[in-house]
Design a protein that fits this description.
The chain is mainly α. The protein has 8 helices and no strands. The chain is elongated and about 65 Å long.
Length: 184
């Protein structure tokens, strides 16, 4: 009797294993054969789900960002926290998760550099992956202004500064072994 396979579950399993592989080996040093071996499937089977490792990595990034955004959405709706506390908690969580998943962040930077070298600019993809977080930060700041929690601060510029600081921390994390998330 043929084995019945849930393709969505298998795709999810491939993504989860791939995240671990990319974190361990980096984007450039990972190949589809290794991913297939770890997932205990053949390369042709892997091609049924993904056309190449770039697509796997893109899906992995999408999976991670969707999961994070869902978590941050619940923080933003927590009535027990002020808007300022919500912003701090979300930013601290981004930094901590990045720090404790440093190998994946390094793989992400590696991926972006490799794609840039090939002439593929992922700036728009990054903006699409973070636009909801930008919107969430803007909404929290606007709510904070309405209730008097924040005074006269420019929302767009403040959100841009928050993202610039988070990106700076991520860059420091990748390059400096002395980075400590608590100090950020």
């Amino acid at each position: 009797m043929p084995k019945i396979i849930d393709h969505e579950i298998r795709k999810q399993e491939i993504l989860e294993q791939s995240l671990l592989i990319f974190a361990k080996k980096g984007f450039q040093n990972t190949n589809l054969s290794y991913i297939a071996d770890v997932c205990q499937i053949s390369r042709p089977t892997l091609y049924q789900y993904f056309k190449d490792k770039e697509q796997i990595f893109q899906f992995a990034i999408k999976h991670v960002t969707e999961s994070l955004f869902s978590e941050y959405k619940s923080i933003s709706k927590d009535d027990n926290l002020s808007n300022q506390e919500k912003l701090k908690n979300i930013c601290a969580d981004v930094i901590n998760k990045s720090y404790f998943n440093k190998p994946f962040i390094i793989s992400l930077v590696d991926f972006l550099f490799q794609m840039k070298r090939r002439g593929n600019d992922y700036s728009d993809n990054i903006k699409r992956r973070t636009v909801r977080l930008h919107y969430m930060f803007s909404a929290l700041i606007n709510k904070g202004k309405r209730v008097g929690e924040f005074k006269d601060i420019p929302v767009t510029e403040t959100v841009a500064q928050i993202f610039a600081m988070i990106e700076s921390f991520a860059f420091q994390m990748v390059l400096l072994d002395s980075f400590v998330p608590e100090n950020s």
